[in-house]
Amino acid sequence: MYKTDLEIAQEAKLQPITEIAKKAGIPESELELYGNVKTKVSLDVLKNAEAKEDGKLILVTAINPTRAGEGKSTTTVGLVDAFNQIGKKAMVALREPSLGPVFGIKGGAAGGGYAQVVPMEDINLHFTGDMHAITTCNNLISACLDNHLHQGNELQIDKDRVVFKRVLDMNDRVLRQVVVGLGPKANGVERHDGFTITVASEIMAVLCLANSLMDLKERIGKILVAYNVEGQPVYVADLGIAGACAMVMKDAIKPNLVQTLENNPVLIHGGPFANIAHGCNSVLATRTCLKLADYVITEAGFGADLGAEKFLDIKCREANLKPNAVVIVATIRALKQHGNVAYEDLQTENVEAMLEGCCNLAKHIETIQAFGLPYVVAINEFATDTQAEVEALQTWCKRNNHPMSLSQVWAKGGEGAVDLANQLVELVEQENNYKPLYDLDASIEDKILTIAKTCYGAKDVHYTDEAKAQIAMFTQHGWDKLAICMAKVPSSLTDDAKICGAPKDFTITIRELRPSLGAGFIVALTGSVMTMPGLPKVPAANRMDIDEDGNITGLF
Amino acid sequence: MYKTDLEIAQEAKLQPITEIAKKAGIPESELELYGNVKTKVSLDVLKNAEAKEDGKLILVTAINPTRAGEGKSTTTVGLVDAFNQIGKKAMVALREPSLGPVFGIKGGAAGGGYAQVVPMEDINLHFTGDMHAITTCNNLISACLDNHLHQGNELQIDKDRVVFKRVLDMNDRVLRQVVVGLGPKANGVERHDGFTITVASEIMAVLCLANSLMDLKERIGKILVAYNVEGQPVYVADLGIAGACAMVMKDAIKPNLVQTLENNPVLIHGGPFANIAHGCNSVLATRTCLKLADYVITEAGFGADLGAEKFLDIKCREANLKPNAVVIVATIRALKQHGNVAYEDLQTENVEAMLEGCCNLAKHIETIQAFGLPYVVAINEFATDTQAEVEALQTWCKRNNHPMSLSQVWAKGGEGAVDLANQLVELVEQENNYKPLYDLDASIEDKILTIAKTCYGAKDVHYTDEAKAQIAMFTQHGWDKLAICMAKVPSSLTDDAKICGAPKDFTITIRELRPSLGAGFIVALTGSVMTMPGLPKVPAANRMDIDEDGNITGLF
């Protein structure tokens, strides 16, 4: 019987976080400890290192995952341990887990097996409170907006055109569509509203894209909250609370330092989902790592069609980051799924189906090539993989000239990715032609079409009438020069969750667009993707418990 | 021009919290630091001191306050500094501020002037995340409940008889009455719901009344969430998530140590409002202080009709605490208000009106006498008080044989309450006849009548038909032997906010009752009291800001 992630994490020998900080080159005076094994890191660390040259930036992405995930975080965490094992100074920048999936299907999310970040329980629960600060900041805006409507509505806000929603860091489907302000007049103005999960909020996006506290304040001020009765936009700044919002975020803006099971430094900061948001940890965490380490490994959520595309088109452009190499994680299990094997049968050997599913891997490789970046395929080994399957995949990679490495970090920790790390040390020295896929100057439709063709393999994009009207209106307001943040199901290259492999000649449908003016992008919602998940029949919460001594079970 | 509370707090010379802990006798191994000036304190501190004798317990209460407050926290904080100045080992146990009032009317709440708790900004914002943990725990229950309705409803919950509400730590009136689950079937089951402010939630109440993490888990399991189609109660335990809820609260259950401006130790933990909840900090914080210090000062919210009554009838009974003395805080301003002076005119000298308003003070003194406790009146001096007014009040106290002291802690810190502290040192040595007002065995109506007559001066209690039906139903379920937690406006002894002084022969109306089975009391809502406040026309949030260096303004 294997140990659970939680059991392995609980056996870890953690070093005091002050020691980890020392290893990373962060002076103790720049720390704000949260207990002995977590700490906030002052933004001065980055400021004081401005003149220093950046380390090499490695992105970890994946193919379209099964619902268990491809092990991107696991690979990322194992990689930093591997780099340190081969004597290189490396750090990781990761996203913070959301409580929604923790209580929902997934349980904890901080790597897995012997490639984890610890303290696992804290990271998965409240951590240092960043998510809660975002929730508070967001809902302060909503409360002030509805209060404005109630107290005379000086800004003449059209109550039926409020676009800013409330949030909770919870999977809670009944909050998707609500009516607020029912009852007597003292209960405020009645209107339709809805809740989004915190990680899909624009506050989360601006936290992750901000360069400083003042930049954060300015971006929050620019967030569109509603239109007035004349159809003109109303912003957070118009409500007069951008300062209060920035104040609420004063600690949340500082990256969090923790460690891997092998005691290497990790910054975990910000956690937008990659299906319904831009899917990357904060710019501040990535940039801080780049000043502190020679090799920085980071991940972007889900497959290269989602996280990597947004990392390369949105985050790197916005923050002027120059990525040096990409790791594309694939599992035998997911490849079999893309070869049409049912989820229940993924544990059974099926070389043929796996080879058929390699079309999905090939498509994501194409995507990375389109961005002009060197890559290596990491086969993330599962205990259920057979030798025949692994060998067949290795052969497939060789035959198609794809650099490849077998990653065994789940079972072996850093040792399991030494070969991968060695390959990356060479790969990052290659000159590369990284360039975002589209120019910001292109039209909204052209930008979306470029993404859909290049990264999904679609032949065309269909717009609902609502979406068409929105594009016309946004263009009128001059918002068409922003980046695009696609919202799409993660399991398929298409906008239909059930379609596997690498289909061609399909059309994706844009249902709705939402301007995120503080973040600097337009969210394009495809198919039926939701910004507030629901809980499964038996939520993960039902297996969780804690005993008298504070020992947690069931959080895995 | 006076300095603001925030300016005074920002000038404070804070000691490292490890030094404050040492002063309090808490070993460093029992701390979990949050930065350098805040720390969680392990529950082992209390456990390891079980055999030690308790210190003396002093409750600070007040008359019915003006909307600016009577300065109870200020007096409480000043008192601990005064006790330390006269060489006594003293500690304070206080409630945590809620973000609702911080962004609403009141601004920050951690004492005032030179009697404050610091770091003021952190305490008033996210502090150590306790409020956020309560919000999460509460909303996890709601999400799982609605998920249960959606996923087949095995427990046969009647969707129109769900009694457990969602919460946010925000003043947000439009959330009082909402409809959730609108839209397609995938959005869950449509039903009426509402949000309560976090500090009025039962999770907050059980946190404040729990004796241990296991007690907390058990109490959460006993919380009533709904009735099934047969009218039988459904509890959190039936949803199978009491363990997950306790896990969410694993850090929140530990008291927080901070310091006064004069570097004396303060535990701040739990913060139920006293108008709509039971109004006292956690039992664990109070009991920990009693083991560490010889004199423990604590406060209960609003006037003696609300906070003190619940402290003495609910908290002390439940936790088996023996209070030794009571401080009744009065201000000249509030007394004038009770003498029918308008809020705008309170700064103008008016001895006659003040003496007329002393009937309110007299009533609260009677209440404390009814509990069998010795007391001292603390006149909390304001800069606008005139000498004639102060002397007239002193004379009134002397003439009526009420022990009294002029407290100048706002202007002078601990020095301003040395006389009060000296009086208390003698007072706590008196034998007292403390006894809760009512027996738990009495009927719900009898218990409410006892409180209304003794503490409010009412002659009778009127019940709406809804309330009558609830009492019958609760009695049938055997819930009539619980304590009563009155919810009432704080500004008046009656259930009408505008009635000042000490009226007689009035009737209060009980509109609705809510069973808090985990907390162990029935909440009785009088008049039109709301469990979700609203924001004022110009919220305090609008004056708040933060600069590049993290300096906060407008939080006062």
From TrEMBL, chains A, B:
Catalytic activity entry: (6S)-5,6,7,8-tetrahydrofolate + formate + ATP = (6R)-10-formyltetrahydrofolate + ADP + phosphate
Lineage: Bacteria, Bacillati, Bacillota, Erysipelotrichia, Erysipelotrichales
Pfam families documented for this protein: FTHFS
Record PROSITE patterns: FTHFS_1
Organism: Breznakia blatticola
Xref: NCBIfam families: PRK13505.1 (NF010030)
Similarity comment text for this entry: Belongs to the formate--tetrahydrofolate ligase family.
Protein name: Formate--tetrahydrofolate ligase
CDD domains linked to this entry: FTHFS
E.C. numbers: 6.3.4.3
